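cron nightly-structures :: item 1 of 1
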Amino acid sequence: MKKILVMLVEDNPAEIELTREIFSSAYPQYQLTVASDGEEATTMLAAALENPRTLPDIILMDLNLPRKDGRQVLAEIKSDPDLRRIPVIVMSSSSAEEDVNYVYRECGNCFVKKPLQLQDFFDIIDAVHHFWVEVATLPRKF
């Protein structure tokens, strides 16, 4: 079974642990790496460019991040010719129209409002898996 590399960019420790638990129990084919702020995410992506097989297949990212905002990270990813092919799913507690519009204007692949209930969170991860792995064809790494 092919490993699917997922980068989670999230600063909330509880959400990081919840996401790890969901992936490890329901999707063992996923390898999850975590960046706890925007600066760490861009550093990790720059390092992965040195070894493209370590680039994530999918990025799950919060918008409101310390050190470097998720909006900046998204803009940097989508402006880089070697990173822009990676689907970026923004999961945010915000549902402000300006945030949704910004994500799509900057070529984010999806905007999802973070759920309040545990089952809803699992359902979102399940939907991400279903669409981005079972339905869509992800681009090959270079």
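cron nightly-structures :: done
DSSP finds five helices and five strands in the chain.
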